[in-house]
């Protein structure tokens, strides 16, 4: 079974920054694609960002472009999500996920992701 463990969530004021980490087992990190999703209360889980493990090519949701950066450290089997200029609407539980590009050209498709972490809470106050 793949294992993903998120950390780095917390509470911050609007305009602040947080860095989330997603530590993966070596087997899970061998997956081609690692992504971040988020789910706010009463809303569906939505795509945030994803990165291809092989070459680092990334994709972002329009709502976070220019503010969030996804990166990977292959030596540590870890993927990061640097979140800057946070807004109250970024408040959500953030989930890390790993899988493959089954749906070609669509990093955001949930069907690409086989393994999911338990999530970490991010709260942004105004």
| Order of helix and strand elements from N to C terminus | EEEHEEEEEEEE
Count the E strands. 11
* Helical content band: under 10%
Shape: globular
Spans of at least 5 consecutive residues with low confidence:
none
Number of helices: 1
Beta-strand fraction estimate: over 45%
How is the biggest beta sheet arranged? 7 strands, mixed
Q: Gap between N and C termini, in Å?
A: 40 Å
Arithmetic mean pLDDT: 93
Note the quaternary state here.
single chain
- Please identify the structural class as seen in this structure: mainly beta
Q: Radius of gyration, rounded?
A: 13 Å
Can you tell me about this structure?
- It is a single chain.
- By secondary structure, the protein is mostly beta strands.
- It is 3% helix and 49% strand.
- The chain contains 1 helix and 11 strands, in the order E-E-E-H-E-E-E-E-E-E-E-E.
- The strands form 2 sheets. Strands 2, 4, 5, 6, 9, 10 and 11 form a 7-stranded mixed beta sheet that branches.
- Strand 4 and strand 5 form a beta hairpin.
- The longest helix has 4 residues.
- The model has no long low-confidence stretch (mean pLDDT 93).
Reconstruct the topology from this structure.
Elements: E1 4-7, E2 10-13, E3 18-24, H1 26-29, E4 33-39, E5 46-52, E6 58-60, E7 68-73, E8 78-83, E9 92-99, E10 113-116, E11 120-125
Parallel strand pairs: 2-11
Antiparallel strand pairs: 1-3, 3-8, 4-5, 4-9, 5-6, 7-8, 9-10, 9-11
């Amino acid at each position: 079974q793949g294992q993903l463990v998120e950390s780095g969530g917390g509470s911050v004021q609007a305009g602040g920054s947080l860095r989330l980490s997603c530590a993966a087992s070596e087997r899970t990190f061998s997956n081609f694609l690692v992504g971040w999703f988020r789910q706010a209360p009463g809303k569906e889980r939505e795509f945030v960002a994803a990165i291809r493990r092989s070459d680092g090519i990334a994709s972002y949701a329009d709502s976070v472009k220019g503010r969030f950066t996804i990166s990977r450290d292959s030596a540590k089997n870890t993927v990061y999500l640097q979140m800057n200029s946070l807004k109250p609407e970024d408040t959500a539980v953030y989930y890390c996920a790993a899988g493959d590009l089954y749906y070609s050209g669509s990093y955001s498709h949930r069907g690409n992701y086989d393994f999911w972490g338990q999530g970490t809470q991010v709260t942004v106050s105004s």
